[in-house]
UniProtKB/TrEMBL annotation:
InterPro entries: GH28_Enzymes, Pectin_lyas_fold, Pectin_lyase_fold/virulence, RHGA/B-epi-like_pectate_lyase. It comes from the Bacteria. This is Rhamnogalacturonase A/B/Epimerase-like pectate lyase domain-containing protein. Pfam families: Pect-lyase_RHGA_epim. Coiled coil: none annotated. Keywords: Signal. Residues 30-86 form the Rhamnogalacturonase A/B/Epimerase-like pectate lyase domain. The keyword Signal applies. Residues 1-26 form the signal peptide.
Length: 127
């Protein structure tokens, strides 16, 4: 005896409904795991960028624990959340050589809208 087709669809619906109820856990990447030091003296640009690049591969959270992280130019990417813990500070370096200047480009309004509409980036700092 064969089941009616609508019964099979009913089972698919319930399977998808149950599957949607399971929480999805984002990958979390601590900048400390990539060599960053939270002492407000060490230049952490490379370590922070490594964490951002790794996180952008799969999406997830780049986590900054308690401390002050000194950094120059970092390039943010889509599908990441920068999460600073309540006592974390991301501090820009005072030295001009810590910043990369690749030249200024003037983009049309349409191009700017296109670039920003494709970027999925969040920055969170709890109060």
């Amino acid at each position: 005896m064969q089941r009616p087709k609508w019964k099979n669809l009913n089972y698919c619906f319930w399977f998808l409904f149950l599957l949607a109820g399971f929480p999805v856990r984002a990958n979390t990447y601590s900048v400390l795991d990539f060599g960053a030091v939270a002492d407000a003296k060490t230049q952490n640009t490379k370590a922070i960028q490594k964490a951002i690049d790794k996180c952008a591969e799969t999406g997830g959270i780049v986590f900054f624990p308690k401390g002050t992280f000194l950094s120059g130019t970092i390039y943010l990417k889509s599908n990441i959340l920068l999460h600073l813990s309540p006592m974390a500070v991301l501090k820009g370096s005072a030295l001009p050589q810590d910043y990369l200047f690749t030249g200024l480009r003037i983009l049309s309004a349409a191009r700017q809208k296109h670039l920003f509409s494709e970027c999925r980036l969040s920055v969170a700092k709890p109060r």
